[in-house]
Design the sequence.
C-alpha cells in the first residue's frame, strides 16, 4: 500500500467521532438545518446558527468560525462540501457556498467589513455566492459582493475582490485569472 493511500484512508480520530456525536445531539437542534452525514468538528466560533444551513455529507473541521450576524445574515453550505481547519465564514449579507466545494485550511469568506470612523461598527459588503465544485486554496480570501462561478479554482493566499468566471483559475492579490474561463461551464 502506498503512503498516499494510507494517509487518505486513515481511520477517523477521536475529534471526528466527538464532532459526529455533537452534530447529531446538539448542533442538529440549533442550526437552521444540518443534512444527513454532516459533521462539525470542534468549531472555534458558532454565531447565529439558526440562520446557518448545512447540506448532506458536509465536513467542517476543527477551528471553524461560522457566523451569521444581523437581520439579513445567512450562511448556506451545499452537499458534500469540505471546510478545512480554521475556515472562517462570516455573514452580514447572505453567503452561499455550493455543493462539492473544497475550502482548504484557513480560508476566509466574509460579507462584512468594519467602519472607517468607528472600527467596532460592522456593515455588510454584499452577498457572496460560491458555485458548485469550487476549490479555494489555503488561506484564500473571498470578499463581499463576489460570485465565484462553478468549477473555479482560487489559488492559495489569493484575495478575491471581483467575480470569478466558471472554470476560471485565479491567483494573487488581488486575484487575477491565469487560466481563462472554461466555455463548457459558462451558462
Sequence:
Amino acid at each position: 500500500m502506498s503512503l498516499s493511500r494510507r494517509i487518505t484512508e486513515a481511520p477517523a480520530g477521536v475529534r471526528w467521532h466527538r464532532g459526529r456525536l455533537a452534530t447529531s445531539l446538539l448542533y442538529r437542534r440549533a442550526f437552521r438545518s444540518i443534512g444527513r452525514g454532516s459533521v462539525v468538528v470542534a468549531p472555534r466560533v458558532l454565531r447565529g446558527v439558526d440562520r446557518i444551513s448545512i447540506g448532506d455529507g458536509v465536513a467542517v473541521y476543527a477551528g471553524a468560525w461560522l457566523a451569521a450576524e444581523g437581520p439579513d445574515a445567512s450562511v448556506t453550505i451545499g452537499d458534500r462540501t469540505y471546510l478545512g481547519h480554521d475556515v472562517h465564514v462570516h455573514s452580514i449579507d447572505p453567503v452561499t457556498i455550493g455543493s462539492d466545494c473544497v475550502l482548504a485550511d484557513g480560508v476566509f469568506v466574509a460579507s462584512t467589513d468594519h467602519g472607517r470612523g468607528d472600527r467596532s461598527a460592522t456593515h455588510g459588503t454584499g452577498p457572496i455566492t460560491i458555485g458548485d465544485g469550487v476549490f479555494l486554496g489555503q488561506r484564500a480570501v473571498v470578499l463581499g459582493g463576489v460570485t465565484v462561478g462553478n468549477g473555479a479554482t482560487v489559488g492559495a493566499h489569493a484575495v478575491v475582490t471581483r467575480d470569478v468566471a466558471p472554470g476560471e483559475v485565479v491567483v494573487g492579490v488581488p486575484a487575477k485569472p491565469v487560466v481563462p474561463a472554461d466555455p463548457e461551464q459558462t451558462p
The chain has one domain: 3-177. Helices lie at 3-8, 14-30. DSSP finds two helices and 22 strands in the chain. The first strand starts at residue 33 and ends at 34.
